[in-house]
Amino acid sequence: MVDSGTDTGARMRVLVYSDKAETREQVMTAIGRRPAADVPKVEFVEVATAPVVLRKLASTDPADRIDVAIFDGETAPVGGMGLCRQVKDEIYRCPPVLLLVGRRDDGWLATWSQAEQVVSHPIDPIALAESLAELMRRRVAALSG
Q1: SS3 assignment, position 40
Q2: What span, in angstroms and rounded, lies between the C-alpha atoms of 47 and 109?
Q3: Nearest CA-CA partner of 16 in 103, 88, 80, 102
Q4: Residues 102-124: pLDDT tens digits?
Q5: Phi, psi for residue 68 in degrees, rounded to 5
Q6: What are the structural domains, with CATH classification, of the chain?
Q7: Among 33, 42, 61, 140, which one has the highest count of C-beta atoms within 10 angstroms of its own C-beta?
């Protein structure tokens, strides 16, 4: 979590990965400033390419830490499912990942990718906010003890 100089509370940094700016905007709009009352406010980090995702998640600088990641499974050329599997295998203490999938039937692929939460397109703001809030709660607990 990062402290904001203008806010009295902590913020959690949420990486949003999609090659489509519209999808990133839909995700951020659906989540809003805070997905639930009992979790910190969100600071979004928008990313459109896999190399930048890998660099952000592998950073050891505490100011750059990502607390939760949201990957669009429909992103090209590197899809969110394959990238999720890669970061889970390669990045020590990888943050939890919420995966956006094209169809509910893609759930088995999300399981293979090792994503902690899955939400299907079209984006349901309530389901997305609830899923993200759950991952944020887990992350706060993991970082606290």
Answers
A1: coil
A2: 22
A3: 80
A4: 887 777 888 899 999 999 989 99
A5: -145, 145
A6: 2-144 (3.40.50.2300)
A7: 42
